[in-house]
Amino acid sequence: LSPCWKKRMISIKSQIISLMSTSMSFTASSGSWTLTTTSSSTPRIWPGTTTT
């Protein structure tokens, strides 16, 4: 494994951890996940597919 790829995996892992500690709400109208954190006042919208 190249160090660059390893670094990316670590960053992805930390992102997943931060997402898990984030309150999630799914809006069916826009079809995207709206993530609101206690630290930031502006919600981050991630384009996502509808989950079954």
TrEMBL record:
Residues 29-42 have a biased composition (Low complexity). Residues 29-52 are annotated as: Disordered. This is Uncharacterized protein. It comes from Cirrhinus mrigala (Mrigala).
